[in-house]
Amino acid sequence: MKMKFKFHILTGFVAISLLSGCSKNPVTGKKEIIFMSKEKEIALGAESHPGIVATMGIYDDKNLQSFINEKGKAMANVSHRPELPYQFFIVDSPVVNAFAVPGGYVYFTRGIMAHFNNEAEFAGVLGHEIGHITARHSARQQTSQIFGQVGLLAGMVLSETVRGMAEQTQQALGLLLLSYSREHETESDKIGVEYSSKIGYDAKEMADFFGTLKKISEKSGQTIPTFQSTHPDPGDRKNKVEKLAKQYQTEHPGKYNVNRDAYLRKIDGIIYGADPKQGFVENNVFYHPSLRFQLPVPSGWQYENSPAQFQMAPKGGKSMMIFTLAPGNSLEEAAQAVVKNYNLQVSENEKTTINGNQAIVMISTQVAQTQTGQPAAATQNSIQVATWLIQYGSNIYAIHGVAAAANFAGSVNQFKSVAQGFKSVNDPNIINRQPDRVKIRTVQRDGSLKDALRDNSQSDKQMDELAIINGMSLSDKVTKGMLIKTLSK
After folding, report:
1. Count of CB atoms within 10 A of residue 393's CB?
2. What would the pLDDT profile of 228-257 be if each residue is shown by its tens digit?
3. pTM across the whole model
4. CB 362 within 8 A of CB 335
């Protein structure tokens, strides 16, 4: 959670008007019914971009950004839709993922950049993502499914129902990107082979990266979105892509580059895993070193942190809490804005102090609207909200506890306990916590990858993870002078 900006609710995706008609697919050449015009695709990308940035943040690495811009533009020029206004971004997320939004917006997480082991692997995934755009996969999905609004949980805090945390996390971090069909995935793999080959890369390396993704999936069992959750595996993908690459190279003889060392040097120093300065949970406490506060996390609760907010919920999904910056320059202004923004009917409102910080606490009910625009009567299905607005330093923070009316009474004491646990943090061990970074080292002697990692003081408990990020097995042979990835602060 970076919180570099005042209260921000995403504009999200605008509602899509259905512009039906028959058009020719630029990749397949087949005629098909499309419910989204090219202009709508471009508008959708432009309108969704601020939300994606607010949700994940941009990773600040000018050299790496320049690299993906260069390769992205080269690939766009050889694509089936070179006229689109392509843009390429590295987002500040440890999740191993890449995704594309209609209209030419392509995103790589720093997590996936840290896991690539050469330029060819990157180029293959880049081609795959551009393929989703050029083949109009998202637009084609509109025949059966329409994009809904996308927002941070702050924008959904008073939705009609309080969903379980897993679903909320998928919506917040998954950005409601549609899971493509097996047909679309296979098609994009083929396009990825073609595009990456056309700009001079060995697409067999793209196949190898699918092996890395499989190992990541097997090791982590992550619930947050990964490349495989937004890109369902259409079977034996690695072998299929390798076959496609060999076929392309047979039909188009030439030199196809891998560029392993050049890529590894580009990612030397990239942050790996969670970045503590954005906030982290340790021993059931959420700490934010940069903003110097802490907040308790109830035992057993699931949680997710994003650049704009921290959200958490019990596994039963009957309630949730959200911590974010509040609007306004005073507690009173913030209270008025919250009531207006969320359409609240306040039943309790009092001033208080929380660990020496001035605060306002409100108990409210969301005022639902009828079809005629009139307020609907409160029911057991209504949403109730406990809100604490806390003045701390130069910021005003909002803590929202949300539950259906039927569950609110059983949840409000837990909400109160969390809010009253908000306080400053001064522990140097917390404030000065540093992230892990990928460090590229030169192998000093022939041996196994495990030998080389131990030579570089890597701990045994990290070995399996280090093998994955190096795209190797611990028993694989390495030679003197070879570059490998290590992790250090």
Report:
1. 11
2. 555 556 458 889 999 999 999 999 999 999
3. 0.77
4. yes
